[in-house]
Amino acid sequence: MEVLTIILWFLILLVPAVYLYFQKKYSYWKDRGVPYVEPKIPYGSMQTSMNVRDTFNIFYKYKSDFPFVGVYMITAPVVVATDLDFIKDVLIRDFNYFTDHGVYVNEADDPLSVHLFNLDGQKWRNLRVKLSPTFTSGRMKFMFPTVLEVSDRFNKTLDELLKTQKTHEVKDLLARFTTDVIGTCAFGIECNSLKDPNAEFRKYGRKHIEEPSHGALVNRLMNVFPRLCQMLHLTRTHHDVTKFFMGIVRETVDYREKNSIRRNDFMDLLIQLKNHATIDGDGEENVDSKVIRKLTFEELAAQAFVFFLGGFETSSSTLTFTLYELAKNQNIQDKCRAEVNRVLEKYNGVLTYEAMNEMQYVEQIVLGM
């Protein structure tokens, strides 16, 4: 009976203590006079039953003259920017003050999570300084022929499909195209997604994006309590996805280093950072002495992985919406086609990097998506 009494008293004291804890946490925005979305214990302002779009639609209903709305992720206060000038302050003017992304990283158990998009603080700064030279216009120009090669294969695949099928799932076809482009540029290997819709690159890429390793609540807990989740060895990446991509990168790096192979792709630049800490043409005098450190293999693999993910779904979705709008608006489609023909005629029918940059109307259409 004494044990039962102790347990009973413990529960009696625990419930109000937990309630007071949440109430204290949920007073953050109110105490600061910020308009906020009323939280609910224990989820905060973000309900697990809603998708991201519906959730943010609710947040924006609280928009006022204040430049942002306060919400809660479990118990953590989060800012949802609603003012364009405020967004510009965060992303441009005061960029150096907002280096933390608040995303869960587990270097020991989930090496693919240690990429530029996830890292915070000094680790992010160091890596950004090293990777910035890889995204100059000159570097992109070197990769352009590789993209053209995949584009030619895309045209051939489309021609073959048009001979046998009347209808096509454009989103899937474009996703296979962007998978091959990114796979070639980021990993330097042929993914063959255009020929085989079930190719491994496409398979594991879709699994990572469409099948989260944990539910919505656990994913939010990772961001709010990262140290606890690291102690529990929780990861965002499926084990088989990590095994596949780490294996592909290992094989690619070993083969290129052993045979002294150089290519105009992202992987070549990463290998330079791994072996020399700098990229050809970017002298060490341009790099802060504090960050002249070679990339580890795990860091190299993580950057290649996020480069792959960055173009996996986003690019194909953008292209899908672009084609849809062009189909719906014949006048815009005609203007777009006229500009393409005019520019190509200037370059003797050859699509070069310079020709692409002259297609300003086409660029506006794509960016408008």
What's the quick description here?
The chain has 369 residues and is mainly α. The chain contains 17 helices and two strands.
Topology (elements, then pairings):
Blueprint: H1 2-25, H2 28-31, H3 52-60, E1 68-73, E2 76-81, H4 84-93, H5 121-131, H6 137-164, H7 170-187, H8 200-210, H9 216-224, H10 226-231, H11 239-259, H12 266-276, H13 297-312, H14 314-328, H15 330-346, H16 353-358, H17 360-367
Antiparallel strand pairs: 1-2
Subcellular location: Endoplasmic reticulum membrane; Microsome membrane
Function: May be involved in the metabolism of insect hormones and in the breakdown of synthetic insecticides.
Membrane topology: Peripheral membrane protein
List keywords for this structure.
369 residues, mainly alpha, Cytochrome p450, two-stranded antiparallel ribbon, 17 helices, 3% strand
Structural write-up:
With 369 residues, the chain is mostly helical. Residues 283-287 have low confidence and may be disordered. The protein has 3 domains: 2-98, no CATH class; 131-315, Orthogonal Bundle (Cytochrome p450), CATH 1.10.630.10; 329-367. It contains 17 helices and 2 strands. The N and C termini lie far apart (68 Å). The radius of gyration is 25 Å and the shape is globular. Strand 1 and strand 2 (76-81) form a beta hairpin. May be involved in the metabolism of insect hormones and in the breakdown of synthetic insecticides.
Supply Rg: 25 Å
Q: What's the shape?
A: globular
User: CATH class of the largest domain, please?
Assistant: Mainly Alpha
The counted number of beta strands is: 2
Main location: endoplasmic reticulum
Membrane topology: Peripheral membrane protein
Function: May be involved in the metabolism of insect hormones and in the breakdown of synthetic insecticides.
GO molecular function: heme binding; iron ion binding; monooxygenase activity; oxidoreductase activity, acting on paired donors, with incorporation or reduction of molecular oxygen
